[in-house]
Specification:
The structure is a single chain. The chain is α+β, with helices and mostly antiparallel strands. It contains 4 helices and 11 strands; from the N terminus they run βββααβββαβαββββ. It has helices at residues 33-43, 48-63, 119-133, 146-150, and strands at residues 2-5, 8-14, 20-27, 72-77, 82-94, 99-110, 138-141, 154-155, 162-163, 173-176, 188-190. Strands 1, 2, 3, 4, 5, 6, 7, 8, 9, 10 and 11 form an 11-stranded mixed beta sheet that branches. β6 (99-110), α3 and β7 (138-141) form a beta-alpha-beta unit. α1 packs antiparallel against α2. It starts with a strand and ends in a 6-residue tail after the last strand. Mean pLDDT is 84; it is low at 1-6.
């Protein structure tokens, strides 16, 4: 992964015929708005209901008052097709005496024929760096898959962090972006309705 600037990165991955293609990661622009939604549909073509839900969640997150375009990154191939996408949205962490804003993964998708080559990881690294630079303390994801485990997310229960509706659920994972982890210990994640 080569850093071009804070808003754009470049990498190479294998294409369908065994060669290599250039991939460019950048902040989503209005030009790519619809293409990113179409990409999400294609990336979930095995599960049409999930495709519809992901597309609707992204549209709703983009309309939310706390939407931050810097926390939405797309990957394009050398023919300018959107082949990957990630979007983080703001959430609230609360305890009896403290409240802070953190982030959650609203959507992450990678085109099926380029998976397992580091593109999902590169997308996550790009938004994690941006989130850290903007001062967010943590990123949460409501699933605990091997992928997120591999890129440094851990079970939030280890820090007594739970999700409001789910209580002590096994599927809440977190990656801390601050060294002050103790300040987040025991908090409750409040997901806004746009994450539904």
């Amino acid at each position: 992964l080569h850093r071009v600037d804070r808003r754009q990165r470049q990498m190479c991955i294998r294409d369908r015929i065994g060669g290599y293609m250039q991939i460019f990661l950048s902040t989503l622009t209005e030009v790519d708005y619809e293409r990113s939604l179409d990409s999400i549909e294609q990336n979930y073509d095995q599960d049409p209901e999930m495709s519809w839900k992901e597309r609707a969640r992204v549209k709703n997150l983009r309309k939310s008052e706390n939407y931050n375009s810097e926390l939405e990154v797309i990957a394009k191939n050398d023919t300018n097709d959107v082949i990957g996408h990630v979007l983080l949205g703001e959430i609230l962490l609360v305890s009896n005496n403290h409240q802070t804003t953190a982030l959650a993964v609203g959507a992450l998708s990678v085109q099926p024929d380029v998976r397992e080559q580091g593109l999902g990881k590169a997308l996550m690294q790009a938004v994690e760096e941006r989130a850290k630079a903007e001062g967010y303390p943590a990123i949460f994801v409501h699933c605990y898959t091997e992928f997120f485990n591999h890129i440094g997310y851990v079970d939030a229960k280890q820090y007594d962090i739970v999700m409001e509706e789910l209580g002590n659920d096994d599927t809440l994972s977190v990656k801390f972006l601050t060294s002050d982890i103790a300040s987040l210990h025991g908090m409750t994640v409040m997901l806004p309705e746009v994450f539904d």
